[in-house]
Amino acid sequence: MSWSINIVCSHRRPIRWGTKILLVFAFVALGLAQDANLHAPEAPVAGSPAAIGTEGSGSATLYLVGPSSAVKHDIELGKSVSLSAQELQSAGRYVATICSSKCNSVTFFVAPAKPANVTFLVHPSRAPVAPNDAVSGVALAFDEFHNLVLTPIAVQFQLTAKGSALMSRNAETRDGIAWFRTSSGRSAGPLQVTAFLSGDVIARRIVQQVASDPCSLRIKGQKTAKGIVVETEPVRDCSGNPVPDGTVVTFTAKSGNQTSSVDAPVKQDVARATILAKGPVVISAASGVAMGNEVRIGGGN
Amino acid sequence: MKRALPIIAIIVVGTVVLMILGLTTGRSSGTVGIAAGSALPGFSQNASTPEQALNNFLLDMRRRNWGRAFASIERTSDTLNEQTFVQEWSGSNGGLRSFSNLEGFETRPLHATDSDAQMRVHLHWTTPVGPVQDVRDFHMVRRGDSWKVVWDENPKPNVPAQIVPVNYLRWDLVTGNSNDEWGSRNVDAPHVRIVSMNAIDSAEGAIVMGEVVNEDTIPAFVNVNAILLDGSGGTIDEESSFDKILHVLLPKQVTPYRIDFPRVSLSKVKNVRMDVKATLVPASSDPVIGVMNQKIDTDAQGHPSLHGELFNQSGETVNIPHVIASFYDNNGKVVWVSDGYVEKALLPQSTEAFALEIPQSLAGKVQNFHVVVNQYSLQPS
For position A34, what pLDDT does the model report? Predict the structure, then answer.
């Protein structure tokens, strides 16, 4: 007779009562450890079958307690006990205890399998063009059973924009983690960031490179029947990228001791507003840290 | 039956007597308000004084007795009809006034002769955004034995039919779901920053105010919270900016914020912990509302205030405009933040006046100001 209880920690399922009782029993048995010899499997790997060697004769009970599972088998002493791949899916420390008239135990570690997945976090999702160290990424290597692969693994980070490679950097995981940090490019648009693990494990993320603050503002205005229509020339950052639509440009018109102002969003590179003014006015514009030129309209000018 | 008839007759006569007594003895002769006035139409006193005439008029308006009120005014323009008169008073197009009720009023004579008079009225409105006080001057004229309210407000000319081209600019939000791989579809929250903060004491309590800027390239829904801490690090009070902030900030847009702590003295406060929260929201850049002819002046009561006009540059109606202004001293420090709702809807390509009060004690310090307009529309843009 054999039975097993699996505890899947990654799904945060609570440990069942049966498992708790089994664990208590295993540790009590461990305290009563006797001289029945056990041989731990050699270099077991997660998800691969392994065997525990036993000495002696007669029947006994095997208790195997791992990071996320606990199993119990009735065994025959003197034969090796097979552990299935399913019983060894979690990497980490295992305790095998055999009890007949007396108990004995052995401890062994199950190593992660080869990398099968990469979790890739890239920050930020939007990065302004040009600043140094604006984009960073972290890759974590996991095997197919979601064990973090702790052995060093070669990782290649690649950044491409508009089909051309901007940067390629080789790194090696340390304690399962590799990372990079780099400057953003000079032009706005999507930046594809790729992490290659062992060649065939790939993760891709997209960072939107967006225009930086407006660099300079040039405005022009003209009188109409309704008022003064004032608009900017195409608003760009210092790298020549058009600022995103919606960027607010504040137009301010001063006439004597009266002030008029409009927060106008950039639409298709240009912000436009109508100012109701009768006399001569001085109109200026600002957006973020950028100030525009002044325009005098009316009053004969 | 024979016994019932005298009883019914006594009840009817008694009721009529009590009604007449109530109508003729309950009226105060001084300041007019909610308690003043007749209870039934047709029983009001003759408007033999300007106060009585105005009182009768305002009571009719308060009771929405539009026909009688319209009949009692002296029109200066033939274009004014009852419908436009009612709309002028009770609001239209989903403006704040159309959700408001006149709760009470106080009248005060400014000037009077035998033939005309100038009256000032403090109107107390109940509105969905709280009580609103309004001051309005009325011109009264004597016609025969009675006085009449001169209604000299002409209806606004309608904006001519036109097509307003709009390059519709809006942001939608697509979110991931729980099945997505971790980190595969993350979108960062907008980056906003508090650029200034100032805390002052007022008669009502402590006030924390300043400005916030959206430094990102996408719109942000912004709220500012403040926690007042005492000397031991304990929390005295925690409040948020609530409606005293422009919540949806477009990229590079700056908004004032103000957080009121009623009945808290700043002398007890050792530290203020500020926290600005920004979240991604679907947003639209329309409508664009200009703030024209801003000027600090004194209002009819002699209080310093910022006056100006809102100009709706778009093609959609703004039902309830909300004006928020930050006032700076000569060092560029925010010394006051004030806000107010405009009672009338802001129609496309139209203007509407606004005024924000400035405390007398701060009026001398104010060197500059920045006005933003929040908008509430019944139809989502």
Answer: 43
Mean of all residue pLDDT scores within chain B: 85
- Residue B293 and residue A244: Cβ atoms within 8 Å? no
Residues pairing with B92 in the sheet: none
Instruction: Enumerate chain B positions whose Cβ falls within 8 A of a Cβ in A.
Output: 167, 169, 171, 181-184, 186-188, 215-219, 250-253, 285, 288-295, 308-309, 311, 313, 351, 369-372
Most B CBs within 10 A among A204, A250, A261, hence the mutation to make, goes to A261
A213 versus A8: the higher-pLDDT residue is: A213
A35 versus A212: which is more confidently predicted?
A212
Q: Which residues in chain A have their CB less than 8 angstroms from residue B369's CB?
A: 259
What's the confidence (pLDDT) of residue B381? 53
Domain architecture of chain A: domains with CATH: 2-110 (2.60.40), 115-210 (2.60.40.1930), 214-297 (2.60.40.10)
The 10s digit of each residue's pLDDT in B223-273 is 999 999 999 999 999 999 999 999 999 999 999 999 999 999 999 999 999
List the single residue in A122, A245, A258 with the smallest CB-CB distance to B293.
A258
Please tell me the distance from the alpha carbon of residue A159 to that of residue A167, in angstroms, as a whole number: 5
Break chain B into its structural domains and give their ranges: 29-151, 170-175+185-283, 286-376
CATH number for B170-175+185-283: choose from 2.60.40.10, 3.10.450.50, 3.30.479.30, 2.40.128.270: 2.60.40.10
CATH of B286-376, one of 3.40.640.10, 1.20.1250.20, 2.60.40.10, 3.40.50.1000: 2.60.40.10
Strand order in the sheet with A189-197: A126-128, A201-210, A189-197, A154-161, A164-172
CB A57 within 8 A of CB A121: no
CA dist list (Å): B103 to B43, B126, B344: 21, 6, 18
pLDDT digits (tens, 9 = 90+) for A116-159: 999 999 999 999 988 888 999 999 999 999 999 999 999 999 99
State the ipTM, two decimals: 0.76
**pLDDT tens for residues A74-89?**
999 998 899 999 999 9
Q: Which of B292, B354, B369 would best serve as a mutation to test chain A binding (most A beta carbons within 10 A)?
A: B292
For B45-115, strand residue ranges (E) read 73-75, 101-112
Q: Which residue of B has its CA nearest to A205?
A: B184
CATH number for the domain formed by residue range(s) B29-151:
3.10.450.100
Q: Residue B13 belongs to what H/E stretch?
A: helix B4-25
